[in-house]
Design a protein that fits this description.
Layout: H1 2-38, H2 43-55, H3 59-72, H4 79-93, H5 96-109, H6 116-127, H7 134-138, H8 149-164, H9 171-198, H10 202-215, H11 221-236, H12 239-252, E1 271-272, H13 276-280, E2 289-290, H14 304-312, H15 325-329
Antiparallel strand pairs: 1-2
Helix pairs in contact: 2-3, 3-4, 4-5, 4-6, 5-6, 6-8, 8-9, 9-10, 9-11, 10-11, 11-12
Length: about 325
């Protein structure tokens, strides 16, 4: 018991030391921040220092100064400008969510500002993703395979900018980014269609591909969508629809990889079909390929409606001969 009490006292002392160090660190940082702003007395001085920090790319310091300016002079003549510039500071520091929140706040507080179009532009830019970051250059990541939520969000924000302020100086860049985003959305649909196709969900794959053809005309993914439709129709045995889609593919995309030199369609001979052993061994064992038929090789003799109709027709009542009580009690051992 005495040893346990010593351990408890030691733990309490250690916690007190850690708490005191944490309080001292917070006080030190607070004093440092206060010392930084001690020489600033007017709103213009706060704004000028924040602008200098922003220009020198010291974004975290600039954010702190902008926040201090707004808290001390919430209705000053530099408050609105500080609120729009802090959006850029958040964005440049890599905090996209904070930049988006600051842009939404500016739009809500200053709907008639001359910088309102810039706020809408930064709103879309905060959700915009491309392959220009350092991580993407070192480890290439296909953003079209990821969840398209942010892509749709950015596209919608840029579309709103073009609808409200078509003559904005940011409209041209927003329009170019929308083309990029639209191509990515179409490519994402193709990835989903291929996912269904590899799992033999041919109807789901065909619907995804048809959605691309109907809603993403002009994107590079349309040719792949038509090719997927041809393959799905062939595997479903819908040869007339397959011929129509194939004629469309030949006419508009004669150089597509799914067509050979004679314009014949090259259907895949292998489709991903991972076995249980392949899945649990992370691809080290087992097989991941199969060769499915192009269409069902046999069909049920009766359709569903015919089966329902036949089930309603009176049929001969055929019953098993009755069982004796002894057979029932002895589970059929004795009859």
């Amino acid at each position: 018991m005495e040893a346990m009490s010593r351990i408890d006292r030691l733990a309490k002392n250690l916690l007190l030391v850690c708490a005191s160090l944490l309080v001292s660190a917070c006080a030190w940082f607070g004093e440092e921040e206060e010392d930084e702003f001690a020489s600033l007395s007017t709103e213009e001085q706060f704004y000028q220092q924040a602008l200098d920090q922003l220009t020198s790319r010291n974004y975290l310091r600039a954010i702190a100064t902008y926040e201090a300016l707004e808290s001390r002079f919430p209705f000053g003549r530099f408050a609105e400008q500080a609120q729009i510039e802090i959006v850029y500071a958040y964005f440049s520091s890599g905090d996209r969510e904070a930049a988006r929140a600051a842009a939404e706040r500016f739009i809500r507080l200053h709907p008639d500002s001359e910088n309102i179009d810039y706020a809408h532009y930064m709103l879309g830019l905060s959700s915009f993703e491309d392959n220009s970051s350092l991580i993407d250059r070192l480890i290439p990541i296909d953003h079209t395979k990821r969840d398209p939520g942010r892509t749709k969000e950015s596209f919608s924000d840029f579309a709103q900018l073009l609808a409200l302020y078509p003559d904005s100086p940011y409209s041209a860049d927003a329009r170019a980014r929308m083309i990029y985003l639209r191509n990515n959305l179409a490519a994402h649909e193709i990835h989903v269609a291929n996912y269904y196709l590899e799992r033999r969900a041919y109807i789901a794959a065909q619907r995804r591909a048809q959605h691309v053809v109907e809603n993403f005309q002009g994107t590079p993914a349309v040719s792949d969508a038509v090719a997927i439709m041809v393959e799905c129709y062939l595997r479903l045995g819908l040869n007339d629809l397959a011929d129509t889609s194939l004629a469309l593919l030949r006419e508009n995309y004669p150089d597509h990889p799914s067509l050979d030199g004679n314009g014949e369609f090259l259907i895949r001979t292998e489709i991903s079909d991972p076995s249980l052993l392949y899945t649990v061994s992370f691809g080290l064992l087992g097989d991941n390929r199969s060769d499915p038929p192009l269409a069902p090789t046999s069909r049920p003799p009766l359709s569903g409606s015919e089966q329902i109709i036949n089930s309603q027709n009176p049929q001969e009542d055929v019953r098993e001969p009755g069982r004796s009580l002894l057979s029932i009690i002895t589970f059929g051992i004795f009859d």
